[in-house]
UniProtKB/TrEMBL annotation:
It comes from the Bacteria. The keyword Translocase does not apply. The lineage of its organism: Bacteria, Pseudomonadati, Myxococcota, Myxococcia, Myxococcales. The gene is glyS. It catalyses: tRNA(Gly) + glycine + ATP = glycyl-tRNA(Gly) + AMP + diphosphate. One of its GO terms (molecular function) is ligase activity. This is Glycine--tRNA ligase beta subunit.
Amino acid sequence: MARDLLLEVGAEEIPASFIVPALEDLKRVLTERMADARLKHGEVRTFGTPRRLAIWVRDVADAGEDITKEVLGPSAKAAFDAQGKPTKAAEKFAEGLKLSVDALGRTTTAKGEYVSARVEEKGRPADAILQDALHAAVHGINFKKSMRWGDVDTSFARPVQWLVALLGDTELAVVLGDVKSGRTTYGHRFLAPGPIPLKAPADYESALEKAHVLADLGKRRASLVEKLHAAAKGAGGQLMEDEGLVDQVTNLVELPNPVVGSFDPRHLDLPPEVLVQEMKSHQRYFSLLDAQGKLLPRFIAVSNTPVRDAQLSLRGYERVLRARLADGRFFFDEDRRTPLADRVEKLGRVVWQGQLGTYLEKVERFRALAGFLAQATGRAGEAATVERAATLSKADLVTGMVGEFPELQGVMGREYAKAGGEPDAVALAIFEHYLPRGAEDALPSQDAGALIGLADRLDSLCGIFAIGKAPSGAADPFALRRACLSIIRIVLGRGYRFSLSAAVDEALRLLAPKLANVKRKPGEAAPREQVLEFFRGRLKALWGEQHRTDVVEAVLAVGFDDLVAAKKRLEALSLLVGHSDFQPLAAAFKRVVNIVEKQGKDVAGGQTNPQRFTDEPEKNLHTAFTQARDKVGERVRADDFAGALKEITGLKPAVDTFFDKVMVMAEDKDLRENRIRFLTEIGALFNQVADFSKIQAEIAAAA
């Protein structure tokens, strides 16, 4: 009979950012162990609060499934002699499986014939499987930081207080540190601190709700959002949306209770980002907006318990914020005493990266690179704004406000530039060169900020790769993956046409003085190739989310130096592969490629000589090819890749007739090589859009 499984780890308050990853680890390890043991089960749910991590698995089978599997032994030659009698090798193999030699069979593999046996493996009882699986699960949670307590050797995010491990109504023995499992959980620390004995896993969620704990993250988050919006409406405003803060506060409380407070309206003359950051970063307060989207002098704090004296609690929240806002005003006023331009030289005392120098050196590099990009993209008219904004772009890093709130870099640069009398375009570019800060963030609205942002990120990418600190696995301390994706988004979003490889070359040229003494590993690719391959990988992943991976690969295979053109080629080809007539076209192209790859390397360079054609089909194909080549060139230059593909598709009948009627591998050497050169030119025509040989034609037909 199937039974439910419950595992809960109770602890002192776990940091909010640890909870979701910990639950993912818990679920992954437990379900993997159950799958390995062939223990069937139903729905899996996780629960998490600051004081608990839990998993509930429904309908766990009584035992793992029985299986019959084939086991290979020694080779047939080693197992039987010339007369067919079993050798000691066969006897030992059978003895190890507790079988008679007569029960052995033979199996033919790619390596030859082997002795085999079919063995039945009984599934282990669920209790025994879970005893090991639960131990692995609770010890398999990885925390960014963990701690030890008392005299135990085990570490966890925070000291463990209790454990629950139930299979149906049966207790399972699990030990973590100095705590042994049982069936007792605990409710809200203040509202229901007493022990709660559980009869079965099904009682878990409802028992905790009665004890003032919303253990389900989704339900607790939904409750928090509902209460926040109700509180905002009651305060005459609307909630400033902040999904990250909602997620964080959800994992800071077990029972959310919003409280609306206010601050002195005189602080509204501070930049709104400062006020929001002061409330969010230190206090985890939510900001409120009026109907026009302007900041109100109100906030919402979230308590873990309903308070008896709301006014007393509110005064506490307001007193803490009052001090924070006073600090913010002090920083703002003090920072404005020194013009932003006067702070630039101080960047020479701030190290960006040990081998690549200070922020001042970085600014000097990407300022020059931004100027290069302005010329390359036809935005030379922005050169003066780019020059000035790039010079000032990092100066706010040495201000008091950004020192306190690094999240405000760029924001404060914009504000201090305005206060110092810089043109609005310069101030905006200082702010926008950080955009986009994330996958959902807006792009720069003007060229100056976009170009500086591209240059800044390219300098980082090229510099870090050049000193041998490229991302590896999940480790990406310099956020190069995000920087690369931001470059792609900006270029495509702004429609910039320039050579990516030329920009990488220029970035590396500017970095050259810093790279003079960098030693490279034997056989290691040059930084240029590493950076471009990194872009290729990001493009493949990004475009693969919306397009077939083989189509993406086909487009990237013929180049992505012009990102805008590559995206247009991808979109055109994606439409074509869905048509029923694409499979024969791809097959014809692959035939061309195969011949060229096998024979082309032996053919001397040079162009096709039409005078050498002897058969009518090859003459007709050459005429059609010449006409198509000119039209395809015109289409490609006009970015009309759909039209170019249409012209290429029109060659298919002539290509088919050529292969049906003409012997490419003729005995006459000159004739043969001329035909191979001709096929090479046809392949090059196709390759102006994509490498069709990368496309799985059979999938295209199914599509």
